Amino acid sequence: MKQGAAMRMRLRGMIRKESLQVLRDPSSIAIAFVMPLVLLLLFGYGVSLDARYVRIALVVEQADANTAGFTGAFAHSDYFVPQLYNNIQQAEQALMEHRVDGIVWLRNDFSARLLTGGAAPIGVFVNGVDANQSRITKGYIQGVWQVWLAGYAREQGQEPAEPVALEPRVWFNAALRSRDFLVPGLIAVIMTLTGAMLTSMVVAREWERGTMEALMVTPIRIWEITLGKLLPYFVLGMGGMLLSVAMALWLFEVPLRGSFWLLAGSSALFMLVALGMGLLISTVARSQFVAGQIALVATFLPAFILSGFIFQIGSMPEPVRVITHIVPARYFVAILQTLFMAGDIWPVIAANSAALFVMMLLFLGLVRRKARKRLD
């Protein structure tokens, strides 16, 4: 009984010490709250995969009612900023000088071919330097053309030329906003960085300042030191997660279609994985500089590149896809994107949560195995 009371007292004292250290150290507060705030603002407002307000050159060699209706469709679109040019040579020069991103060319026989029922092709030139935006721009132009063609056929009392009428349905992100896709994934990247940085840096700082040696000569056990350091930074990291979720919901207006408590539970599981990675780094690096570099290379970069946060895992080469299975953020990104955009899809959430649970046991088990109450 006395041993249990002494253990609780030591653990309580260790937690109190770490909590006071957090309150006295502004860098921990900055890592937990300021860094998520800055990253969310930068990525939420500065990064977009949408192609909007595309500068498009419209070349109409012979203006009439038909060409006016077609070019008007571009003027009323939120995706294009049309600019009129007198001839194709001027438009091509503007494209080469990056003053426009694409060209739509209506030749002088456009209306004549259209009225006679023959083929009335249009010329389309797209700047292909950015392959992703060029594909999106090409699709938008085709969409404007098809919508206008269907309207023209109705005005003429004819059936649309296409034998099949497409009625697209977009699931999970009906607005097609890349922000709804990026912000949930960014929460996983932020939690990876904050969790690993919080534990690896602060433990390394104690080695540099000599306070860890003072702990080693006390009766406290090594697992009590580990748990005492884990709990305060777990609370701090979860506070940063709540700030990130609040910004996602109320600032960026990303819908949360799943359960908040399920989100909190999976976030807690992932935070333990991130803290375990940070504690493992601190066992091999006793310098803040070295610990910070290892945390960036081993946690942040894989979470940023190999988690599916921006780059689709399915489009990666097979060897890289295999490597992504050892990146914890991959599983948490899948959970976040499912909860925010689709809802409580249990097959997805359960499978990825099980992978995170295994990784949590692995990292904390390695910490327990590697941590020793000695100075060498």
Biggest sheet architecture: 4 strands, mixed
The whole-angstrom Rg is: 28 Å
Q: How much helix is in the residues?
A: 55-70%
Order of helices and strands: HHEHEHEHEHHHHHHHHH
Topology:
Elements: H1 2-24, H2 26-46, E1 54-60, H3 65-75, E2 80-85, H4 88-96, E3 102-106, H5 110-115, E4 123-126, H6 131-155, H7 178-209, H8 211-216, H9 222-251, H10 260-284, H11 288-305, H12 318-323, H13 328-341, H14 346-370
Parallel strand pairs: 1-2, 1-3
Antiparallel strand pairs: 3-4
Helix pairs in contact: 1-9, 2-7, 2-9, 7-9, 7-10, 7-11, 7-13, 9-10, 10-11, 10-13, 10-14, 13-14
Descriptive overview:
- The mean pLDDT is 82.
- The chain has helices at residues 2-24, 26-46, 65-75, 88-96, 110-115, 131-155, 178-209, 211-216, 222-251, 260-284, 288-305, 318-323, 328-341, 346-370, and strands spanning 54-60, 80-85, 102-106, 123-126.
- Strand 1 (54-60), helix 3 (65-75) and strand 2 form a beta-alpha-beta unit.
- With 376 residues, it is mainly alpha-helical.
- Strands 2-1-3-4 form a four-stranded mixed sheet, with helices on both faces.
- It has two domains: 21-47 and 177-370; 54-155, 3-Layer(aba) Sandwich (abc type-2 transporter like fold), CATH 3.40.1710.10.
- The longest helix has 32 residues, at 178-209.
- It is built from 14 helices and four strands.
